[in-house]
From TrEMBL:
Residue spans crossing the bilayer: 12-32, 44-66, 78-102
InterPro entries: DUF1499 (IPR010865)
A Pfam cross-reference name: DUF1499
Domain of life of the organism encoding this protein: Bacteria
Name of the protein in question: DUF1499 domain-containing protein
Keyword Transmembrane helix: yes
Keyword terms of this UniProt record: Membrane, Transmembrane, Transmembrane helix
Keyword Membrane listed: yes
Length: 306
């Protein structure tokens, strides 16, 4: 009598694959909607955690499927392996975020000047939803920052404030920081002007012929040596720039404040960075501030070399 061996089928492995696909699809849809679309950070975190929860169930079922394959030779090994691959992205993202959450201090606002942090020109506001946080930054928070990031401090540069301001504005633009508010300037416009849509460069250009200029044009005289040089600064020796920036990959929003203080022949630059949402910035606020100051160091070094 011939005995045929019929391999059992692991339903856990079969289900794990579809749950893994669902978890990955949810994460892949939520991430671009947050980075480029209208999805807010609290909603994105909620969907990411939901995706990780589905992926966790898929992972457990995949392990059961592999165990069944090892013990009784049940079919479903390929399904379990594919589920493991699908679960890797959402679970890896949440695991890395959880590692930063426990590794970094619970701060959402950092400043290079912990004793006299620059005040916001316009206090950032956002609907925190289910991510509540303290309304003000306490002295204990600043002490915690000083202990966690002892090297985070303002940078002092040789030169007048107008020279440093030019470099600071250039670096801010290069690092995708859009300036929305300024103080201490006269005649300088922010990068973001509320209520004004971007205009085309050709706006206002008409085909009306320009009148012919007179033949004898008076030559302007040289400015007297004792006349004050033209300036965009109001004379307070302090210039402040406030804007917003987003991380390159995940698009997390951060508010940034740059303060320039002129002292004799040097200018001190301080930076304050705050996460737009949540009570924890995962250590990215300090990274943004340090990256900005490092780039400003390079820009000022290039100006000095020239």
């Amino acid at each position: 009598m011939t005995v045929r061996f019929v391999r059992p089928v692991s339903h856990a492995a079969y289900l794990s694959r579809y749950l893994g696909i669902a978890a990955l699809a949810l994460f892949v849809i939520a991430a671009p909607l947050h980075r480029f679309g209208p999805l807010t950070t609290p909603d994105f975190i909620s969907l990411t955690l939901l995706s990780a929860a589905i992926a966790t169930v898929s992972l457990l079922l995949a392990i059961i499927g592999l165990q069944r394959l090892w013990s009784v030779g049940a079919r479903g090994g390929v399904w379990s392996l594919s589920a493991l691959l699908f679960c890797a992205v959402p679970l890896g993202t949440v695991a890395f975020g959880a590692f930063l959450y426990w590794q970094k201090p619970q701060l959402y606002d950092v400043s290079t000047d912990v004793a006299d942090a620059p005040s916001w020109l316009s206090i950032p506001t956002a609907n925190q939803q289910w991510l509540p946080r303290p309304a003000v930054v306490s002295k204990a928070d600043r002490d915690l920052q000083a202990a966690a990031y002892p090297s985070l401090a303002g940078h002092r540069y040789e030169g007048a404030i107008d020279r440093v301001y030019t470099a600071a504005r250039k670096v801010a633009t290069a690092q995708r920081t859009r300036i929305a508010h300024t103080q201490g300037l006269i005649g300088s416009l922010p990068d973001i002007q509320p209520g004004m849509p971007p205009q085309d460069q050709t706006e206002g250009v008409t085909d009306t012929p320009i009148e012919e200029l007179p033949a004898n044009v008076p030559v302007p005289l040289a400015r007297p040596a004792d006349a004050p040089a033209p300036t965009f600064f109001d004379g307070s020796s302090i210039v402040m720039l406030q804007g917003e920036t987003r991380t390159l990959i995940w698009g997390l929003r951060y508010d940034i404040l740059i303060r320039l203080r002129e002292d004799a022949e040097t200018t001190l630059v301080d930076v304050r960075v705050a996460s737009r949402f949540g009570p924890h910035d995962l250590g990215m606020g300090a990274e943004i501030a340090e990256a900005y100051l490092d780039a400003l160091d390079a820009e000022m070094q290039g100006l000095n070399d020239n």
